[in-house]
Amino acid sequence: MKFTGIDNMTIGKILLVEDNPDDELLTIRALKKNNIVNDIVVKRDGVEALDYLFGTGSHADMDSSELPQLILLDLKLPKLDGLEVLKRIRESEHTRFVPVVVLTTSNEQQDIMKSYEDGANSYIRKPVDFDQFVESVRQLGMYWLMLNESPSMK
Fold first, then answer.
1. What CATH superfamily classification does 14-145 receive?
2. What is the pLDDT of residue 142?
3. DSSP labels for 40-68?
4. Are residues 19 and 10 in contact, defined by beta-carbon separation less than 8 angstroms?
5. What pLDDT is attached to residue 9?
6. Residues paired with residue 70 on neighbouring β-strands, in sequence order
7. In terms of Cα–Cα distance, which of 66, 62, 89, 72 is closest to 36?
8. C-alpha distances in angstroms, 54 versus 39, 49, 58, 107, 120?
C-alpha cells in the first residue's frame, strides 16, 4: 500500500479481475480515496487474467516474472469464471503464493466454501453502500498491502 508521505519502498501492482465497468470504477475510486496508489492492472475476464499472470495469449511478449502484490478477483466472469481462475492460480508454482481476495457480490454459501477450498486468502462481499465499500477497501488495503507478509517470489 502506498500512502503519500511513505518512504520510497517497492510497491507491487494490484490485479483487479472485474468484468463490470461500474464495479471496476467503484473499486478504483475506493482504492484512491484510501490513498492506495499502487498501479492497478484491470483484466475483464478469466482468460485475460490468466494470460496476464502467465505471460500467454495477448500477453505472450510480457515478462510474467513480476507478479502482482495482490489479486482482487470477482467470481462472475466471462470466458472463465473466477473459481476456475483461482484454481489455476493455486495449481501453478509460479503464482500459488500470490494473495487472492475474492471481491464479489455473491453471498452464496457454496461460492464462499468453494473459494476457500480452491485457495482464496479472503472472501469479501461487495457492500452496496459506497461509504461501506470504501471502508471495506481501506481495511483490505491496510491488511493485504501493509501488514501481510507474503513469501518472496524471487
1. Response regulator (3.40.50.2300)
2. 81
3. EEEE-SHHHHHHHHHT-GGGTTS-TTS--
4. no
5. 40
6. 14
7. 72
8. 19, 9, 11, 30, 18
Cell for 64?
A: 510474467
List, run by run, the mean pLDDT of 10-residue segments along the chain (154 residues): 38 92 91 88 96 90 84 95 97 94 92 96 87 86 80 60
**Per-residue CA distances from 3 to 11, 26, 62, 73, 154 (Å):** 10, 19, 28, 23, 25
CA dist 54 and 89 (Å) reads 9
Can you give the pLDDT at residue 153? 54
Distance CA 150, CA 144 (A): 9
**pLDDT for the residue numbered 152:** 63
